[in-house]
Amino acid sequence: MKRQLILEDGTYFVGRGFGADTELKGEVVFNTGMTGYQEILSDPSYCGQIVTLTYPLIGNYGINRDDFESITPAIHGLIVREVEREPSHWKNEESLHTFLQARGIPGLEGIDTRKLTRLIREHGTLRGRICSMDVDREEIVQELSNSGWQHDQVETVSVRDAYHAPGKEERIVLVDFGMKHGILQSLIERHCDVVVVPYDTSAEEILRLRPDGILLSNGPGNPEDVPQAITMIQELLGKVPIFGICLGHQLLALASGATTSKLRFGHRGSNHPVREISTGKIDITAQNHGYTVDKESLVNTRLEMTHEAVNDGTVEGLKHLDYPAFSVQYHPEASPGPEDASYLFDAFLHMIAEEKKSKEIQAI
Ligand SMILES: NC(=O)CC[C@H](N)C(=O)O
Questions:
Q1: Starting from the edge strand earliest in sequence, which strands make up the sheet with 282-293, in order?
Q2: What positions does UniProt annotate as the active site of this protein (predicted)?
Q3: Does residue 268's CB lie within 6 angstroms of at least one atom of ligand 1?
């Protein structure tokens, strides 16, 4: 069945529908990963976005039981060049088509995804709507250009009540701004005792959980949309070691006096090179972000830039000069993507151990 993508600048792409026969609008972004579509479509950081995958054939290995980054996907649509409806893989449970259909997410295939990606690169991300053929295009363009950006994504995807994933080692409070399960998994693999809490939990409530460390998760939208989290982080800085990932990194920066802004088309893919400034070492990283910490704003803070993006020089990692706290804009949990940066979870646990040691020495 024919279906189309209409963009706020009036451009439209006609292709074939798959997934749910429904209409949704969202910010149209692209991801350059060649595999990992299941993790991408279930990554809560894509809440409200329509994702174009630049790799031309998607769906070959189907959808399996294990690779979800959240149980309920929050994306508003998936656009591919060609979708495979008869997947083949030993873990395959169902096709991408039937999965999206059951989850109410529209798909669009058979369009020139290279053209769409170039358009986004030139213009910046655009609002768009996946819809049927019998709509008034003019009306949709009007509606899209009059609509602002969404501001409630974190609230939509964050957990409602705290829960406990027991472990024998350090107590980590994981603040869920739209957490990818890969982060929780990375802590569980290291035997951490994890309490996952909602995004608007106060510093006082977090301290009551007696954390050894606090992990600020990834999440959707503009970091400025969650001011209560900025206050919470300010109250925790210096009291408990903090590690921020992606949105968590941006929030740590805001809480420390830096500023953030929206990139033209963001970084989304599984092969983004990042340079560690102190050593010159390059990690190939998984990324998904539309906002960035402003490099120039760091001069007014006690933050040091530890990592930078090789492609465009933007800030990819920060360290606090006074308190045990660091953060990265990329995804050490990978899922999907290379695992070059997984050592950062160990660095977090090492920071916690050092902090405990120095507190013991102070107590003597
Ligand atoms: N993956 C993330 O945490 C993304 C952070 C933020 N929503 C951004 O787009 O920049």
A1: 163-165, 193-198, 171-176, 213-216, 242-245, 325-328, 315-320, 303-309, 260-276, 282-293
A2: 246 (nucleophile), 331, 333
A3: no
Annotated binding residue at 219? yes
Residues 222-274 pLDDT 10s: 999 999 999 999 999 999 999 999 999 999 999 999 999 999 999 999 999 99
Q: Tell me how far apart the alpha carbons of residues 83 and 92 are, in angstroms, rounded to a whole number.
A: 15
Specify whether 331 is catalytic: yes
List pLDDT tens digits, range 53-103. 999 999 999 999 999 999 999 999 999 999 999 999 999 999 999 999 999
247 ligand 1 Cβ < 6 A: yes
199 and 338, same domain (yes or no): yes
CATH number at residue 41: 3.50.30.20
Domain, as residue range, for 292: 154-363
Ligand 1 binding pocket mutation candidate from 254, 289, 330, 331 (most atoms within 8 A of CB): 289
Ligand 1 contact via 182 beta carbon (within 6 Å): no
Same domain, residue pair 166 and 264: yes
Q: Can you give the CATH number for the domain in which 288 is found?
A: 3.40.50.880
Asked if 354 and 206 sit in the same domain, the reply is yes
Angle formed at CA 71 by CA 341 and CA 221, multiple of 5 degrees = 65
Looking from the CA of residue 218, the nearest atom of ligand 1 is: 3
For residue 178, the ligand 1 atom closest to its alpha carbon is 3
Same domain, residue pair 125 and 209: no
In this structure, the answer to whether residues 211 and 69 fall within a common structural domain is: no
Please check if 256 is assigned to a binding site: no
**What is the count of structural domains for the chain?**
2
Nearest to 203 by CA among 236, 173, 246: 236
Task: Answer yes or no: 123 catalytic.
Answer: no
pTM more than 0.95: yes
The yes-or-no answer on residue 204 being catalytic is: no
Which residue out of 170, 246, 267, 316 is catalytically annotated? 246
